[in-house]
Design a protein that fits this description.
alpha/beta
Length: about 325
């Protein structure tokens, strides 16, 4: 069994978040539907970037956000995701490494530019997101770093990336390497539309490769094609060791080892931006798991991290999650 250098290594979309403030007039001028996310091509991404005002640029993506949250708890982490050898690839690489996260993926010299999400924040706090997936979705087995995977306690896979055949092959290869090295494999289903498009492949991935599955209510019922959350939860438990199911303000439910644990959502005075709630919940939960903490404490760490991220604009923690957890008595 390989030496475990990392608590969690994530594999997912490598996206640069470009966040700028604007007024409603800017959205109208560019025919953007306020509060929604849409996919755009490289040309539109370039034009919108030129038109935006001063912006904050930083590494993003669902599992990358989880890994950033884990780092805020004090975990040692790595990330694997594809960027291009361009300006935004350099930004992603520098930013994620600045958090103390190991990132060794070689930038692609050909193909699509680095993925980016242009986020426009209006004065009322609404986020209008325009996403160009670029190089990230061309992820293939050759982008994997065996040393990172084999050195992890948990390898965490992002469902958003599970789209093209090459990425599916990469996930299967990563899971195989992880298990051979004695690591657990965790998977987030990410989005019900992803699940609908590739339901059979997702079901196979969950039953054959994943030890831990993260999903919200809509994602898990979509996976098992049932209307009842309880039916979906039971089905998930047949397929994996641990099912971690989130239900927004109704908290979360953790099923495994013959037990069901319900965790209340942390109270938040005002939700400013729900983006990243699931990503940060996973961060807290996985951190607790890698530290050998009880499942209930893992869930409470997840709720704490989710509450922190929805209390401000942006999908990354602005306060030290380690300090918040210690103040709550969840960590020593």
């Amino acid at each position: 069994m390989a030496e475990k250098i990392y608590d969690v290594v994530g594999i997912g979309n490598a996206i640069v978040d470009i966040i700028a403030r604007c007024d409603d007039g800017f959205l109208s001028k560019h025919d953007l539907d306020k509060g929604f996310m849409r996919l755009i091509d490289a040309d539109e991404a370039a034009k919108l970037y030129e038109a935006m005002g001063p912006a904050t640029e930083r590494s993003g993506g669902s599992v990358a956000n989880s890994i950033a949250g884990l780092a805020s708890f004090g975990a040692k982490c790595g990330f694997i995701g594809r960027v291009a050898a361009d300006q935004f690839g350099g930004i992603f690489r520098h930013d994620i490494r600045s958090l103390g996260i190991a990132y060794t993926t070689d930038p692609a010299e050909d193909g699509a530019p680095t993925a980016r999400c242009l986020v426009l924040v209006t004065p009322d706090g609404e986020r209008t997101m325009n996403t160009f997936l670029g190089a990230s979705v061309d992820f293939a087995p050759g982008d994997l770093d065996p040393d990172l995977i084999e050195g992890a306690k948990i390898v965490y896979l992002e469902g958003y990336l599970f789209d093209k055949d090459a990425a599916k092959s990469a996930f299967r290869e990563a899971a195989k390497r992880a298990k051979a090295a004695g690591a657990k494999v965790a998977l987030t289903l990410s989005d019900p539309f992803c699940v609908e498009r590739h339901r059979d492949d997702f079901r196979k991935l969950v039953s054959e490769d994943a030890d831990i599955v993260f999903a919200n209510e809509k994602e898990i019922t979509t996976l098992y094609e049932v209307n009842s959350f309880d039916e979906a939860a039971d089905a998930a438990l047949q397929d994996c060791e641990l099912a971690v199911l989130t239900r927004s303000e109704d908290g979360s439910m953790i099923l495994g080892a013959g037990e069901t644990t319900e965790i209340p959502a942390d109270p938040v005075s005002k939700v400013l931006d729900a983006t990243g709630a699931g990503d940060l919940y996973a961060a807290g939960f996985l951190f607790g798991l890698t530290q050998g903490l009880p499942v209930e404490t893992c869930g409470r760490l997840g709720s704490l991290a989710a509450a922190e991220v929805i209390s401000h604009i942006g999908a990354r923690p602005e306060s030290s999650l380690a300090k918040l957890a210690a103040a709550r008595g969840l960590l020593n």
